[in-house]
Amino acid sequence: MSQQTTIRKLAALVNTPVEKLLEQLAEAGMPFSGPDQVVTSIEKVKLLGFLKRSHGKVESADDAGEAPKKITLNRSRKQEITVGGGKGAGKTTVDVVVRKKITLSPRDAAADKAAPVTDERAEILRKLEESRQRNLDEQRRLAETDKQRADEQERIRREAEEAARQKAEADARASLEAAGVVPDGDEAPARKVATSHSHSQAKPAAPRVETARAPAHKPRGSHAMVAGVEDDDRASRFAGQMHLSASDRARRSTGARGKPAGGNRPRRGTEQARTGGGKHAFERPTAPVVREVAIGETITVADLAQKLAMKGGEVVKALFKMGVMATITQSIDHDTAVLVTEELGHVALKADADNVEDALLAHVEETQGEKVVRPPVVTIMGHVDHGKTSLLDYIRRTKVVSGEAGGITQHIGAYHVETDRGVISFLDTPGHAAFSAMRARGAKLTDIVVLVVAADDGVKPQTKEAVQHAKAAKVPLIVAINKIDKSDADPLRVKNELLGEEVVAEEFGGDTQFVEISAKTGQGIDALLDAISIQAELLELTAVRDGRANGVVIESSLDKGRGPVATVLVQAGTLKKGDYLVCGVQYGRVRALFDERGEQVPEATPSIPVQVLGLSGVPDSGDDFVVVDDERLAKDVAQQRDAKRRESRLVAQAGNRMEDILAQMGSGEGQQTLNLVVKADVHGSVQALREALTGLSTDAIRINVIGSGVGGITESDATLASTSKATIIGFNVRADASARKVIETNGVDLRYFSIIYDVIDQVKQVASGLLGVEIREEIIGIAEVRDVFRSSKFGAVAGCMVVEGVVKRNKPIRVLRDNTVVFEGELESLRRFKENVDEVRNGTECGIGVKAYNDVKPGDQIECFERIEVARTL
Ligand SMILES: Nc1nc2c(ncn2[C@@H]2O[C@H](COP(=O)(O)OP(=O)(O)OP(=O)(O)O)[C@@H](O)[C@H]2O)c(=O)[nH]1
Predict the structure, then answer these.
(1) What top-level class would CATH report for the domain 774-870?
(2) Element at 797 (helix H, strand E)
(3) Looking at domain 375-540, what is its CATH homologous superfamily?
(4) Is the N or the C terminus of the chain less surrounded, counting Cβ atoms within 10 Å?
């Protein structure tokens, strides 16, 4: 053992005055009475620790890692420890006899180091404890409230029972009295008591029982859950949660309720059932919500799902179960939508999709007023080259008074002329094709048809067709026997031939006016106009003149400078500049109105054609137009119509019929595949058909027999065909009932045959359809540019000579320079002597304006071509 150290010795060792050391020892909590007292090694270490702390020694980084190093005690006799370093303390070296270094130093150091961690942990634990305490307090409080409430209920119940008991007693007593058991003297007061009981006790008892029940609902709420043993459990589960809001609590409580019943839950359930459940507790709706959804002609699956408050996928699934394949974005038709809605347990209503249209109709109806006579609208029909265009041109040229002297009339699709007998409007698109196209779109524009028959040619196929069209449309005819100036003209022949078409001239006892004319010389033209006016008078054509206008689009185009331009024929009301109108799927405000002379007009009345500027887009000819109060309605109607049109298109595209599949496939690139399922009566036929049909495959199309077999067509065959979009070939076999159902539902194409060659022929045809069409180009005319004029109104206009074929205004063109295409586009204008024309033939001069191209140069060629579709065959 080492020798003992006194204070004096230690003071000498550490080079400190004895008094100071004694003082320090005393400060370190080790008071010594004198310098000769022995200082133990523990005391020395303690002193060292004290001195370190009091001098604020900062441990070196190395020391910080390991506790024993901090004290740096080891077994060497002399260990230098830098204690001071601070002010005044200087550098102190301590020699330590190491005996118990391990027990003290590490713990102290560790305690020093761990302090902040411990603090943090303590803080967390404290908070947790607080939170737990709060929860417990709250639960206790709630339990207290519940207990009070239960006590109150119990009290009320007891009171009610007591009241009932007393009433029963009173009743029993009363009956005893009635039976004479009670002494007579008591009778009156007893009855009195009984009566008073029944009034004062029994009566209030009833409502009390009710009120007793009412509060019984309340504890079903969230805090009902925290009462009792299980709630204590739960409380401790939540105890670690710092903040548990009321809503959280309610949520958790509700969640807990969903767990399998345990503990006293069945009791709770019974109680709840008895009391009718808590008013404030969440209750899952017991009956499914039946929604009423309005469905229009078509609806997208997504929209339907939204209306049904379901996920799109669920509706898709339901549709799939019904055998309808549709994606979320696809539109389904009304009937399918109704079926799936009902399948899903909801109610489908016919959508009032037309409500904006109704508003529009109301607008049209509002235009009712006093009807006045209106001009007739005339269409000219007849066989090719019989002089329809010549007649229209002659009337326009001679009867439409041009604005400027020498000016020309504009081709706007229609024009009106003033005669002595009144105004007549002509639709400037001759031929029955245009007429029937309008009719097909539901537009009945024409009041009178002028049938042009060349006197030298007589009745021809198109003459007959024109008669049929006019008759079908119940439009009266006037026959214009044209080319009467010609030497071989034979008007009588025309009259006779038309008898065969049941068109009987007045002189033959019929009611059809015949007028002999010459579109070349103008002979008989006035008589023709007279005949039209007479016919119009007979028809007593009237229309409301005042009020908002409506009518039909005759022609439309997109003008480079003016935007969408539509020629409309007003059928009722007066169309004015500034009017808001809806026009097919377009809408807008009338910016300007132009007549056939190209002059601005302030308004257009019934039967008067007029060009309209200001529409949002180019409407289709045959579209109706209606003037409305405000732009909003116009926009709504137009947008709804547009959406409807798009939806209908989508529905048509989504069709699962063979034609659609083929059409869709036909438009693809590369080798197409035609899938077939072949069923036949005997094995030999199946073999023969398989070989013959697959042998039809070419580079462009592959005939793929995806299924074949002997026997009738089964449901499985039908499903296979449906899923792989295949056609079923039934050779001497038929489909059974379940197969027919699948075939019908999915629109599978099924074809029956009994002759092998017929099968091959038909498949060839179908395959040809699949091959699609080939677009071929044919150059129909070439014009050479001789000179180029620049006009501020029309831009560059090329003065040309047509050197080949015919240049047509509405066909695509290319501008060629040194046999190289420099531009491809379309014609803006095609004119002859300042007059717009539809076509210019070989050897004729003309002025050409190329749309969106101003760089035409003399020497260029303008080639006019058309694209024709040629069906490909195998
Ligand atoms: N002599 C004579 N020729 C006429 C008369 N009317 C038209 N023609 C000529 O007949 C030819 C055909 O006339 P169009 O007006 O183009 O006949 P269309 O019926 O409009 O012909 P398509 O537009 O092809 O259907 C032209 O060369 C006219 O000059 C007429 O009254 N007398």
Answers:
(1) mainly beta
(2) strand 795-808
(3) P-loop containing nucleotide triphosphate hydrolases (3.40.50.300)
(4) N
CATH topology of domain 292-350: Arc Repressor Mutant, subunit A (1.10.10)
CATH superfamily, domain 668-770, is Translation initiation factor IF- 2, domain 3 (3.40.50.10050)
Helices then strands, counting H and E runs in the chain, come out as: 26, 34
Lowest mean pLDDT among 88-92, 161-165, 336-340: 88-92
* Residue 173 or residue 164, greater confidence: 164
Average pLDDT across the chain, whole number = 73
The answer to whether the annotation marks 15 as part of a ligand binding site is: no
Band (166; pLDDT cuts 50, 70, 90):
confident
What is the DSSP secondary-structure string of 526-592? HHHHHHHHHHHHHHT-EEE-SSS-EEEEEEEEEETTTEEEEEEEEEES-EETT-EEEETTEEEEEEE
| CATH 3.20.20.140 for the 552-666 domain, yes or no | no
Does the pTM surpass 0.90? The reply is no
Q: Which of 19-28, 37-46, 349-358, 600-609 has the highest mean pLDDT?
A: 600-609
Q: Return the residue whose CA atom lies nearest to atom 2 of ligand 1.
A: 483
Which CA distances in Å does 53 have to 61, 240, 492? 17, 39, 140
Ligand 1 pocket list (CB less than 6 A): 382, 384-390, 430, 482-483, 485-486, 518-520
Quote ipTM for the complex: 0.98
384 CA: nearest ligand 1 atom: 25
Nearest CA-CA partner of 71 in 90, 96, 91, 92: 96
Tens of pLDDT along 371-430? 899 999 999 988 888 999 899 989 988 877 654 444 556 678 889 998 888 899 998 776
Question: What mean pLDDT comes out for the span 194-200?
Answer: 37
Between CA 816 and CA 825, with CA 820 as vertex, the angle to 5 degrees is 50
